[in-house]
Amino acid sequence: MLFGAVWHLRLDMKKQFLTIVFLFVVAITFSQTLDEKIERLSAQMAELQRQQVELQEEVNELKLVKIREDLVAVGLPELKKQEELITHSAMSLVYSEKHEQAKWVAHIILPDAINGKAGRSNDFREDPLIETGSATEKDYFIKQYNKETKKTDYIGFGYDRGHLAPSADFKWSKKALSETYFYSNMSPQLGSFNRKKWAQLERSIRSYLVKSSNTQLYVVTGPLLSDDLETIERSSNKISVPNYYFKVVLDLVNEKAIGFVMPNKALKKSISSFAVSINEVEALTGINFFSKIEDGLEERLEGQNNSEDWILQKGKR
Fold first, then answer.
1. Boundaries of every domain in the chain
2. pLDDT per residue over 93-128, tens digit each?
3. How far apart are CA 107 and CA 176, in angstroms?
4. Which of 7, 175, 199, 218 could form a disulfide with 250 if both were Cys (CB 3.0 to 4.6 A apart)?
5. Torsion (CA) 248, 251, 252, 257 in degrees, nearest 10
6. CATH classification code of 76-309
7. pLDDT digits 0-9 by tens, 83-92
8. 8 Å CB contact between 276 and 307
9. How far apart are CA 307 and CA 274, in angstroms?
């Protein structure tokens, strides 16, 4: 009896031991299987993300190609004799060597600009496509090493490096955004103008695409240049300081257009008070905008001046 009881006890203990070993082996195997699955799926996700980045870059390159084609087809002003067209990835311009800034810069704003993630690059640099040499850093400020603070002091000449084609219009493309920091796209603007009403105008035009996301905007921006402009005497190239800037905008899909002419100074009036027709901007600048559009449509569009379609109303987007 005792032997039988002991034998059964040993048998039960053996079964329990084998069960524990089995469960332990299963647990290890199952754990290894989960780890392998997690590792495999993580690797697949990383590969998909890499492919997504590559595909997005390809899509963006195609968009840049289309922008250049659309600028040629619609967006470029008519070139005058002796004017040379400078073409970058997403903007084109004509440069004035005399004034060391662009006569005008043409670009297109896509709806992608609204939710684009690229931030300011601040990589200001000379434009390598300007054969005579573009403006430089020394046209806006000089740098001096301060022995006391052991830091570099930036001594400005009183003007911002104002973008003509705004960098924020290209937030969907790091490449295009970076190119807006060429000095050929800069013009000396008072900070009280550049950072306030001018910036507000740029935001308003981008916001137009929130309610009209089925289109793209053709934009041409520039200074009003003349021989009697003052220059920044301390600047390296004696760069001219414009008194006024213009901007014309065209929505060809919805057949809407408008122009703006704003003085380079602190402004208290609303942006809408500076709205004009494109015809009026043409009369001021002598530039023929959107000349490749059919004549009847061009005249109808360039005669419009409905600022309510374009200006961002307070409290609205």
1. 76-309
2. 999 999 999 999 999 999 999 999 888 899 999 999
3. 10
4. 218
5. -50
6. 3.40.570.10
7. 999 999 999 9
8. no
9. 9
